[in-house]
Amino acid sequence: MSGDTSADRIENLIQIASLGALNLGQPARDASHAIPEPELRLPQHAIVGRSELVAAVLAGIEAGQQDFAFEFLPGIGKTTVAAELIRHQALRGRFDGVLWAHLGQTPDVHGELVKWAEAVGLDEATIAKRKNDGELGRAIAARIGERRVLLVVDDVWTSAEGQYFMLAGPHITRVLTSRKRGVARDLNPRAQVHVVPKLALDESLRLLRALAPQAAEAEPEALRMLADRVDGLPLALVLLGRMLRNNEDESRPVQDLLASLSDIRRMFAAKKPMEFAENASFSLAEVVEAGYSQLGSSGLLNGEPTDAQQLREAVTALAVLRPDPIWFDESLALSVAEVRPVLLRQLVQAGMLERRAAARPGGEPRYTMHRVIAEYLRGKLPTERLQLLNTRAAYYYLAQLKAIEEQYQKRSHYLGLYRYENPDWRESQDNWLYHFAQAGYSRDATMAFLRVWLTAFWWWSCFTDEGFDFCDQLLNEWAHRLSLSAPEAGSGALLQAQSGERINQLLEGLDLLRRFKLAYPKETVERSQGFWPDVEATLGEIRRRAQLDAAPPDGDKPDACVVRGLSSVFLAEAARFGRQDFAAAETRYRDALALFVEIGDEWTQAWVLYHLADMQIQRGQPALARPLCEQALRLAEREQDPEVVALLQRALGDVELQGGELDAARQHYAQALQAAYLFQVSPEPPDAYTVSFYPELAEAVAERLRVLQASEPAAAQALARDLRRPWLRAQGLPDSAEPVEIAGSTAAALAARLFAPALPLEQLGAEGAAYAQRVIEHLSRMQQTAADE
């Protein structure tokens, strides 16, 4: 019955603007007709995480604000917040009544206005006389008069329909909910708009516990995974909670539900009970589909014209990108969906995307899609389209990787590995691996993933107590992604079973890597402390699954070469330190060495040769160690890695010392100490590992002096004074003829007396930069002193 002219609509909006600005003094309350309570079906569960929003509206009302709105995703709980608001005792005392209208996708505007008219006391004859809904609305506003009334207009899809409920009055407060961004301010630019956030993890857990307390108590960790599954979307949490409650008689209800959700369609098909003023029960799929089907209608009175089909194609294309909490750049969105920027803005307005400002000044805007919406929309994509879109995303991130890696290409292989500490490179690498796998290259992507993970472990994790977080990040994120994977939409039972089996195999592979990482001892601790049988078992199974345990791969497969090569190094360590099987260890080392020679990786060759040489010294075979060290040293110097140079010079010093060549040993130990000292500041500023490496190597040299002191005290004294001399001269101090106290000293105390002082780790943050400058100056003086001699 709307039948309004444009003039009617403008008059209605002008009334809002003019009457809303009137003085809000104490009104004369009209008690001639009490407004009945809205008939709402309240949820049969606790409401969590919404008290701040209610408090914000109460504060706004207290300050004289009359227009409020709750916006954001479907299923986020906008209606719930509005219902919580009208139940709040402090608010109810401020109003003579509440009028509630539920519009929805296909609203009955006239029917809802008639309900309001009857609630405020208009009789049937008066209602019937109104020519259109605009007149009826004004009659309702006139009947309200001076009374304080709260109007709640729930689930407004368009301004054209919502405008009839924006009644004007000096003491009328209006609250609107909408999934479409901009509708509230289109109706009233002065509206205080609140974006209803997702529930935090702890809030999600509270809601699930309220819905299914027994299951929640039985499996708390699994419950966290279930909550994370839907990323704080209250509607989905309620559905999961109800499903969980129905499973509570099972022995492992949460695990069973998680497993069943590998077919995500089960969750989308579940219907929620009717709540508030709804007149039907909706499934999660229907809630999301409603927004999808309405794309193309801006909902605004003067919105931009849009192409509905283009918007639907764009939003399903963007569903392949990593969802909230990950944000993607506008350029990625445009590249994958092949659309103009205006379509992204329209999807934000439709509530299908969220937009955020650029991550850095001058950057491009970023977007994200809620995980539940993305999962639903991905189900609309056939396999060929899904792989094409992921291929576009993979190429986008590959281009980013190449741009970043250009900065490292002019460096040695060793210096190029510092890209692993570049957060932009890590993010691009992770995203490239993900989309490469989704593009249909599952086996190649798995091998690429293993190469990146094992290289990160070799580069950093096996040396530090805390581990290189990129390894853990990859394991956690890939496990999370796989847990969210589902069989392809529309696939038959056989394909679904095959897909589920593949996902389980990949999850098992991640678990093998996690177990390997826990079992492998840090390079900085006593090597016998490792859980070497677990190292061998996990790596052996990984190599079997990757089909790398037979003939070595060809050099034209560098990913496979690196994976087999690094795993062979770790297996060699397990044979050497776990079983003292030096022959097996040598076989593994040489297998790795051949592979890294094949792909031209000189830095890793140097490290493998060092480990092999170190083992020969351990076995009492210095003659076999010497050529290995010399070959490795040439490679290490070309690679400009002071760490492995220091270790090789120390090993050569050990070889010469065992052969009684004290002067040669002195030269190698001196160069080892200088390289370790340099490693603290080059090629990167000091960190916890590099400033620990120098004193450890210095103590190792000092320990050799202590051992020599027991058998040849004079030789030990001469060697100690010779090693001390360059450090003293660089400081401008005279050499001392006094004997060096060796026998009664610990290795640490002896190193502190002989060589430049190390920086205590606890001072690294405050003194690191100044210490680095002192190291550089000290080394420069040592070089100058040596040149002068």
Write up this protein.
The structure is a single chain. The protein has 789 residues and is mainly alpha-helical. The chain is built from 37 helices and 8 strands. Strands 2-3-4-1-5 form a 5-stranded parallel sheet, sandwiched between helices. It has a 3-stranded antiparallel sheet with strand order 6-8-7. Strand 3, helix 8 (159-162) and strand 4 form a beta-alpha-beta unit. Helix 26 packs antiparallel against helix 27.
List keywords for this structure.
mainly alpha; 789 residues; 3-stranded antiparallel β-sheet; 5-stranded parallel β-sheet
List the helices and strands and how they pair.
Elements: H1 6-19, H2 51-62, E1 67-71, H3 78-87, H4 89-92, E2 97-102, H5 109-120, H6 124-129, H7 133-144, E3 149-154, H8 159-162, E4 172-178, H9 183-187, E5 192-195, H10 201-211, H11 213-218, H12 220-229, H13 234-246, H14 253-260, H15 265-269, H16 284-293, H17 308-318, E6 328-329, H18 330-337, H19 341-349, E7 354-356, E8 366-368, H20 371-378, H21 383-405, H22 413-416, H23 423-438, H24 442-461, H25 469-484, H26 493-519, H27 532-545, H28 558-578, H29 582-598, H30 602-618, H31 622-639, H32 642-658, H33 662-679, H34 688-711, H35 713-730, H36 747-754, H37 764-788
Parallel strand pairs: 1-4, 1-5, 2-3, 3-4
Antiparallel strand pairs: 6-8, 7-8
Helix pairs in contact: 2-3, 5-7, 10-12, 10-13, 12-14, 17-19, 18-21, 21-23, 23-24, 24-25, 24-28, 25-26, 26-27, 27-28, 28-29, 29-30, 30-31, 30-32, 31-32, 32-33, 32-34, 33-34, 33-35, 34-35, 34-36, 35-37
